[in-house]
Amino acid sequence: MTYTIITPDFDVGSKRRISAAASIPKHLYQAALQAAQAHDEGNFSRYVRRLIRNDLQDGTPRGETRFPGISRHAKALQTNRTHLFLVLTGKRPSRSLLQRYTALLKKEGRPVPQLPAAA
What we know:
Helix 1 (26-39) crosses helix 2 (44-56) and helix 3 packs across helix 4 (81-88).
């Protein structure tokens, strides 16, 4: 036997609203009810919403930053972040921008990442 949980729409930040539905086995449902009783005064919907909200919060690992400070560097190089990123990943050629970016990093005393060969 399974139970279906449906939560009403609720805000999770950044103007996003979600609702959730899940079918879970009876023993998991009962365990969730017990956890809700202990943490959210028995309000199961609030407990489930909090679990989902915490799962969607910013601050979750997004992976390694490939080019730290890229927005600041783009502004200093008088270009936009998207163009700089495309050049740094080799999707758009610009020998002069690569040279200026490398010089900027050296001036800041930062290590120069592995960059594509200049076109």
